Amino acid sequence: MRFNYNRLKAERVAKGFTVQDMANVLGVTKGTYSKKENGKLPVTVDDFVVISNKLEIPIDHINIFFTLNVSKMATNTI
């Protein structure tokens, strides 16, 4: 599984939050949050809990932030 950073940004924008809003909720600088959202710094489990709460993502919808890594060979059927 891979974390979908594009979805993180899309959800933030859709909810009307700025990068600064998210930085404030995490207690980090705007630049640090931006790096997390762009995949240059890791989003920790603790970060993710705070972010998903701020975005009001129900626990049963958390999977929207993850994509499966499926190799091309695995998708070929005979």
Per-chain topology:
Blueprint: E1 2-3, H1 5-14, H2 19-26, H3 30-37, H4 45-54, E2 66-67, H5 72-75
Helix pairs in contact: 2-3
Which features would summarize this protein structure in a list?
about 80 residues; two-stranded antiparallel ribbon; 434 Repressor (Amino-terminal Domain); about 50% helix; single chain; 5 helices; mainly alpha
Description:
- The longest helix has 10 residues, at about 5-15.
- The protein has a two-stranded antiparallel ribbon.
- The protein has a single domain (about 1-55), classed as lambda repressor-like DNA-binding domains (434 Repressor (Amino-terminal Domain)).
- It is globular.
- The mean pLDDT is about 90.
- The protein is built from 5 helices and 2 strands.
- By secondary structure, the chain is mainly alpha-helical.
End-to-end distance: 25 Å
Which strand-content bin applies to the residues?
Answer: 5-15%
Q: Return residue spans where pLDDT drops below 50 for at least 5 consecutive residues.
A: none
Q: Briefly note the structural class of the backbone.
A: mainly alpha
State the CATH class. Mainly Alpha
Shape: globular
Count of discrete structural domains: 1
Number of strands: 2
Helix content: 40-55%
Note the main sheet.
2 strands, antiparallel
The CATH architecture term is Orthogonal Bundle
- Helix count equals 5
Give the helices and strands as they follow along the chain. Answer: EHHHHEH
Radius of gyration from the alpha-carbon trace, in angstroms: 14 Å
Average pLDDT works out at 91
Please give the order of strands in the largest beta sheet.
1-2
CATH superfamily: lambda repressor-like DNA-binding domains
Per the CATH scheme, the topology name is: 434 Repressor (Amino-terminal Domain)
Organism: Ureibacillus yapensis
Protein name: XRE family transcriptional regulator
InterPro entries: Cro/C1-type_HTH, Lambda_DNA-bd_dom_sf
GO molecular function: DNA binding
